[in-house]
Write a structure and sequence with these properties.
Blueprint (H helix, E strand, L loop, with lengths): L1 E5 L3 H13 L3 E5 L2 H10 L4 E5 L7 H10 L6 E5 L4 H9 L4 E4 L4 H19 L4 E4 L2 E4 L4 E4 L2 E3 L3 H12 L4 E2 L1 H8 L10 H13 L4 E4 L3 E4 L12
Parallel strand pairs: 1-2, 1-3, 3-4, 4-5
Antiparallel strand pairs: 6-7, 7-8, 8-9, 10-12, 11-12
Helix pairs in contact: 2-3, 6-8
Length: about 230
């Protein structure tokens, strides 16, 4: 999942980004409301963490502008203000949740996961995706084959998640990069191939099919030899 943090307190923003990256999210950070609006309008984010008091354009206006444009990205608002009026104003502009500073990081992560689960539920009946004998739990971020849990790194799961959410469809390398790596990534785009190769070793060579010149497609079930060492 790819998140955007729009927060002008740079130390807080970078601290949140570091923690959420460790949770397995791809995180972009900007410190200005106008830049946040531009990023959120141009990139398909899974969730937006938006401060209210921002230079350039405040969080209320960023939120209302995105909603007026039909952008339904989940928005979690952050503010140093406190009071029912401020919360109501934030929610009235289209925010999905509201957190007052100072806040617990554990609570922030719980709110983020709840919003992502809610969005996932709107798209499918369950956060658990069945792929043959595999179960991909996008809420718990775990993968099982039968009763056996298959250990994946945060990035490996993120790549698998993007393919699982569109199982049977072709997902391009650039689409995977956009959701799994942040906009500051300047490395080799072939990093996607490296992670796909690792997933094939762990889950089976036939589960992820390469569609030449287009990307990758996750098949409905694993092929022979799934999980065998190579």
């Amino acid at each position: 999942m790819r998140l955007l943090i729009v927060e002008d307190e740079k130390r807080l923003a970078l601290s949140l980004a570091k923690g959420l990256t460790a949770e397995g999210y791809a995180v972009d950070v900007v410190h200005d409301g106008l830049e946040g609006l531009h990023r959120a309008s141009e990139t398909d984010y899974d969730l937006l963490i938006l401060d209210i008091m921002l230079p350039g354009m405040n969080g209320y206006r960023v939120c209302s502008t995105l909603r007026a444009a039909g952008n339904d990205v989940p928005i979690l608002m952050l503010t140093a203000k406190d009071g029912e009026y401020d919360e109501a104003e934030g929610l009235d502009t289209g925010a999905d949740d509201y957190l007052t500073k100072p806040f617990s990081y554990v609570v922030l992560v719980a709110r983020i996961k709840a919003l992502l689960r809610r969005r996932g539920s709107a798209r499918s009946a369950s956060p658990v995706i069945e792929l043959g004998e595999f179960r991909v739990d996008t809420a718990a971020r775990r993968v099982h084959r039968g009763e056996e849990e298959i250990t994946l790194t945060a990035k490996e799961f993120a790549v698998l998640e993007q393919l699982s959410l569109r199982a049977g469809e072709v997902v391009s390398k650039s689409e995977i990069l956009e959701h799994v790596w942040d906009f500051a990534y300047e490395g080799d785009p072939n990093i996607v191939e490296v992670y796909v190769s690792t997933l094939r070793r762990k889950l089976g060579a036939r589960l992820i099919k390469t569609v030449r010149g287009a990307g990758y497609r996750l098949e409905g079930g694993p092929g022979p030899g799934a999980g065998e060492p190579r």
